């Protein structure tokens, strides 16, 4: 029986792991700090538009507390800027078949990269033989330790998943993907298995370019106008680099049901995405370097400057380092800083 080891059981990882566990699928959640300790002591609470459940899912704080099994599937769900450290930490952990040590995780186990951006697959491929890219569409938020708010209904989320890199054993990969599709569908998600997930991840990247604007502006109006300027610039950069991106129409159709974000009783009216959550919680870091910063990187590679995305990357990083909160910046201040 497959066990999903969720490395980084925060908003997305906690939502996926909690939904799977609630349906009887075996999981192991990995989380640090107060969030991890709360789940160890009290379980994980999932708050959805139509239900609230507390799941007593097994939880650990790191690989030192885990005995990996040959039937495990690693699911990486950290922020992208945390991915390299997390993968490095797990790559050399021993894997056992009953009581026999059969090798390292990097050689024996598949890893699913359920992160924003398009960099984590290459990071994982430096360590792991079998890497599966995951494009995540899931409106999940973690504000309080031990609690994840999942606002998607009727579907909880949509995931596009495919092998990253050339498969040595296509039959084994197909079997794994079908197993993931079956398990995650039973947990209330839609899992699509395209031949190549990366065009989907680049399309999601374009959407995620608005995360920094939402994080900086909070409830202040005007974020969408500025976000659209960053997206327009990004499309030009990706076209110049000849990077394939899933079309807007295809993307919209794929996540139509999951895009129905509904209110969850007893939660704040305004809840933001991953970058908003980083500033709201005062984490001191933010993943913008791998979102807007990815567009800046591609632009520099192909000689197509991306000044809006470059500047917002620096502004978001400064906000995280200096403890700014969502809404500390007005739209006029941000527009001036971006030269718009």
Topology:
Layout: E1 3-7, H1 11-22, E2 26-30, H2 33-42, E3 44-48, E4 51-55, E5 59-60, E6 68-69, E7 72-76, H3 83-91, E8 94-97, E9 100-104, H4 105-108, E10 111-113, H5 120-125, E11 131-137, E12 140-141, E13 147-150, E14 157-164, H6 170-186, E15 189-192, H7 198-208, H8 211-217, H9 223-240, H10 248-254, H11 274-281, H12 292-302, H13 307-322, H14 331-338
Describe it for me?
By secondary structure, the protein is an alpha/beta fold. It has two domains: 3-196, Rossmann fold (3-Layer(aba) Sandwich); 201-338, N-(1-d-carboxylethyl)-l-norvaline Dehydrogenase, domain 2. 42% of the residues lie in helices and 19% in strands. The protein is built from 14 helices and 15 strands. An eight-stranded mixed beta sheet has the order 5-2-1-7-10-11-14-15, sandwiched between helices. A four-stranded mixed beta sheet has the order 4-3-13-12. A hairpin with a 5-residue loop joins strand 12 and strand 13. Helix 12 (292-302) runs antiparallel to helix 13 (307-322).
Entry keywords:
alpha/beta; 15 strands; 4-stranded mixed sheet; 2 domains; Rossmann fold; 340 residues; N-(1-d-carboxylethyl)-l-norvaline Dehydrogenase, domain 2; globular
């Amino acid at each position: 029986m497959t066990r999903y080891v969720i490395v980084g059981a925060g908003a997305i990882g906690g939502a996926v792991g909690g939904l799977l566990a609630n349906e009887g699928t075996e999981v192991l959640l990995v989380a640090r700090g107060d969030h991890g300790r709360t789940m160890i002591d009290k379980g994980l609470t999932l708050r959805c538009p139509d239900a609230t459940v507390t799941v007593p899912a097994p939880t650990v704080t790191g690989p030192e507390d885990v005995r990996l099994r040959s039937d495990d599937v690693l699911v990486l769900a950290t922020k992208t800027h945390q991915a390299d450290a997390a993968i490095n930490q797990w790559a050399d952990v021993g894997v056992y078949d009953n009581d026999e040590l059969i090798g390292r995780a990097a050689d024996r186990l598949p890893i699913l990269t359920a992160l924003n951006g398009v960099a984590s697959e290459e990071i994982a491929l430096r360590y792991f033989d079998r890497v599966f890219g995951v494009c995540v569409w899931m409106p999940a938020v973690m504000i309080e330790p031990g609690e994840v708010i999942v606002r998607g209904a009727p579907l909880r989320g949509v995931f596009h998943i495919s092998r990253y890199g050339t498969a040595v054993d296509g039959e084994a990969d197909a079997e794994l993907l079908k197993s993931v599709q079956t398990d995650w569908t039973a947990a209330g998600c839609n899992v699509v298995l395209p031949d190549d997930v990366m065009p989907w991840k680049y399309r999601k990247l374009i959407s995620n370019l608005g995360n920094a604007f939402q994080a900086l502006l909070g409830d202040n109006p005007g974020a969408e106008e500025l976000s659209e300027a960053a997206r327009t610039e990004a499309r030009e950069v990706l076209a110049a680099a000849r990077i394939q991106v899933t079309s807007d129409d295809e993307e919209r159709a794929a996540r139509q049901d999951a895009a129905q974000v509904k209110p969850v009783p007893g939660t704040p009216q305004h809840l933001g995405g991953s970058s908003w959550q980083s500033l709201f919680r005062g984490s001191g870091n933010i993943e913008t370097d791998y979102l807007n910063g990815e567009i800046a990187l591609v632009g520099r590679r192909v000689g197509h400057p991306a000044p809006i995305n470059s500047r917002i990357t620096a502004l978001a990083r400064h906000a995280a380092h200096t403890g700014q909160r969502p809404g500390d910046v007005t739209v006029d201040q941000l527009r001036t800083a971006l030269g718009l």
